[in-house]
Amino acid sequence: MNPEKTAPIIEVENLSFRFDGGPPVLEGVNLEIAAGDFASVIGPNGGGKTTLVKLIVGLLKPTTGRVRIFGLPPVKARPRIGYMPQHAMMDPRFPVRAIDVVLMGRLGSGRRFGSYSREDREAAAGALAKVNLEDLGARPFSDLSGGQRQRVLLARALVTDPELLLLDEPAAGLDQKVEQDFFELLQELNRQLTIVLVTHDLGFVAGFVRTVICVHGHVDIHPTSALDGRAISEIYGGEVRMVRHDLR
Fold it and tell me: CB-based burial of residue 236 (10 Å sphere; 0-12 exposed, 13-18 middle, 19+ buried)?
């Protein structure tokens, strides 16, 4: 897909947000993301990256301004969004299979846990195939490697066949080779859906993403090719060393 020739599916207009009357976390945010884009949200700690993603997915409401996803309020658009949070509420020691973790993504609309249909199970198997773990569905989640667990959680976000995928630090804690493979998988998925991810490691993701969303109280948008050292220093409030992670 070519994001430059499609209408935006994420539209943020004059948004500000603060927690319980505190100082603004985000202020004066205007943002458009086109269908088919692969965008990275970067910025300093406390700059509002995760807050912005939660506003987009509808877990938080703007103090002022508005968010529209597919032209709808985020809550109404949520069935078309896959979300992989930074801290998944999943104890790796919990005795559950990989396929069961993926099926959790099908819960909703009043359905009780465990009352999965054949369609649900087929969707879960298909989601595991998308992340190249189709043979590990019956494996206990606790027996999987860190990279495999992240892929299972990604499959959980994909199991409803979303059009927009939001990920918050999806590769945190993964080693270099596993991280490389994970982002190559995201690049493949980007052929079918729009992806927005939060990361601290701009030096690594710059080779994969098209758009960089810089969040530091407000928001600036750059194509990856236009983000130079001066712009990065302004975002992080000081000199930042960019480290490439090219595999040898």
Answer: middle
CATH number assigned to the domain covering 3-90+163-236: 3.40.50.300
- The DSSP bridge pattern shows strands 38-42 and 194-198 to be parallel
Question: Taking a C-beta distance cutoff of 8 angstroms, is the pair 36, 1 a contact?
Answer: yes
> Cβ(147)–Cβ(139) under 8 Å?
no
User: What CA–CA distances, in Å, run from 96 to 74, 143, 155, 189?
Assistant: 31, 10, 15, 26
pLDDT of residue 171: 80
User: 3-class SS at 116?
Assistant: coil
Q: Using 50, 70 and 90 to split pLDDT, how confident is the model at 248?
A: very low
In this structure, the chain runs to a length of 248
Look at residue 236 and tell me whether its pLDDT is greater than 80: no
Give which of 94, 98, 196 is closest to 156, Cα–Cα. Answer: 98
Residue type, 34: A
Q: Which one is predicted more confidently, 54 or 109?
A: 54
Residue 115, φ and ψ in degrees, nearest 5? -90, 60
Does residue 196 contact residue 205 with C-beta atoms inside 8 Å? no
Residue 224 has pLDDT above 60, yes or no: yes
> Predicted confidence band at 174 (pLDDT cuts at 50, 70, 90)?
confident
Angle between helix 146-158 and helix 118-130 axes, rounded to 10 deg: 130
- Rounded to an integer, what distance in angstroms lies between the CA atom of residue 196 and that of residue 33? 9
